[in-house]
Amino acid sequence: MRWALVKVCVAVTTMVVVAFAVPLGLVIKEMARDRAFSNAERQAAAIAPALSITTDRDQLERVVASAGSDDGMAVHIPASDGAKAVDIGRQRAAARDIATTRSIGRASTTEVPGGSTLLQPTALSSGEIAVVEVYVPEPEVSNGVGTAWAVLAAVGVALIVGSVAVADRLGVRMVQPAQRLVEGAHELGEGKLGARVPEEGPNELRLAAVAFNSMADQVVQLLANERELAADLSHRLRTPLTVLRLNTASLGDGPAAEQTRAAVAQLEREVDTIIRTAREAKPQTAATVIGAGCDASEVVRERMGFWSALAEDEGRKVRVAGVDRPVRIPVARADLVAALDALLGNVFRHTPEGTAFAVDVHNSEDAVIVLVSDAGPGIVDPEAAMARGKGSGSDGSTGLGLDIVRRLAESTGGDVRIGSSVLGGTEVRIWIQLDGRAPVRRGHRGSVRRRRRGVGASRV
Fold it and tell me: Where are the alpha helices (H) located in 124-254, listed in sequence order?
């Protein structure tokens, strides 16, 4: 907008300068020519009284010399009554032009080498017509024209430069509020909820700034209300959790009792984490720091140890692969635990008892792939299952399970895909990018490339 306004002002000012400066320059040139020939006419008029009195050569030469134009003035007297023609001074005009001027009795001008001549007819006492020739050099005709044109050009350039400066200032006044509005929108999009825009500039941009600040205030208020609501709802879970924890004390010893107590303790920790996060003044918008995170192999082994006990009770075969060596990923341990629990919980919730499942970890130079697969009936509509916040419609389905997995992968620049597994059921692939770049679309050990849709219940 700024440069467009400058260009328009330059074009308009240039047209105005040309429209006025060119005619004015031509008028100045014509005025200089008129001034030069007016001077020539005055010189010729100074000789006329002497010609009306005498035609004596000596006297006329003295008159011409006294006029100060002995080199640029000539007098041509025709022959009469036996007297010879008299020519005083240097003749520059052609004899034909002099004769024409004498015959018509009116002053005329003619072009000669180096300039022009004024031919002025003057009546003698004898009735004959003498012609006074006054030479006007070309520099005298154009005297001052170059300077005047230079001044006009300088004024025109100054006007154009001034218009550019004024247009630039006007453009800055219009563009800066728009730029501040754009920067404020970017900051707000990045999670900087304190971003506000000065309410200044043209009226339209000022109104836009007012609307933006009002929107930002409403966003902050809505987020605050949501945090308070999440904290309040999480806090309400503490009472039933306390009852569960007290009841687990009466379960005695044994693997099932220990697993139940561990699950209740983990649930209490998760609730505390939700409450603390919800109470924070700022949302967690910082990018995952490369190099920080957890060991995916250790987390998979620990969670599979937890779920294997339940799998044994239901007669499910379990397979774990790729966890024999450390695999560092830029994901917090709690986030990976939540994602694995969501996927493994889906297996137990949406497949019949006795259905086998497996967890594989594949490590490459730029990514880590976690595959959770089962031998169940599969998924009818993978796209619907991946839609944010969509549940299957069954009891206990909130639509948040795959959202947890999706957020974990996307926080590293990766993604989540649902396909068919080698076990015949569903395969959920979690692509965790190690360097923060966009995910690379390539296969990994065959199963990663498969995108075929399965059949069966939706997952949450």
Answer: 138-141, 145-189, 203-236, 238-248
CB atoms within 10 A of CB 340: 25
> Which uninterrupted H or E stretch holds 361?
strand 357-363
Neighbours of 274 (CB within 10 A): 16
Cα–Cα dist 119/92, whole Å: 11
Q: Which residue has the tokens 């792939």?
A: 369
Give me the DSSP letters along 376-430. Answer: S---S-HHHHHSTT---SSTT--S-HHHHHHHHHHTTT-EEEEEE-TTSSEEEEE
CA angle at 394 for the pair 393 and 395, rounded to the nearest 5°: 125
State the Cα–Cα distance between residues 115 and 244, nearest whole angstrom.
119
**Cβ proximity of 4 and 168 under 8 Å:** no
> Other CB atoms closer than 10 Å to residue 120's CB: what's the count?
22
Overall size of the chain counted in residues: 460
* Tens digit of each residue's pLDDT (9 = 90 or more) over 245-274: 767 777 777 777 777 878 878 777 777 777
Which residue, 299, 307, 301, 403, is CA-closest to 355? Answer: 307
Look up the pTM and report it.
0.44
Contact 383, 390 (CB under 8 A): no
User: Could you identify the residue written with the tokens 């404020």?
Assistant: 184
Neighbour count for residue 350 (Cβ, 10 Å):
23
CB 273 within 8 A of CB 332: no
Torsion of CA 171, 177, 183, 184, to 10 degrees: -170
Exposed e or buried b per residue across 177-193, where buried means at least 16 C-beta atoms within 10 angstroms of its C-beta: bbebbeebeebbeeeeb
End-to-end CA distance of the chain: 49
Q: Find out whether 389 and 407 touch, Cβ atoms under 8 Å.
A: no
Which residue shows structure tokens 């006029």? 67
For the chain, the farthest-separated pair of C-alpha atoms sits apart, in whole angstroms, at 164
Burial class (CB in 10 A: 0-12, 13-18, 19+), 450: middle
Residue 412 amino acid letter? T
**Would you say 389 and 399 are in contact if contact means Cβ atoms under 8 Å apart?**
yes
How far apart (Å, rounded) are the C-alpha atoms in residues 382 and 452? 9
pLDDT tens-digit readout, 61-75: 787 777 665 578 888
Interval 381-435: pLDDT, tens = 777 777 654 544 444 444 556 777 888 888 888 889 888 888 888 899 999 988 7
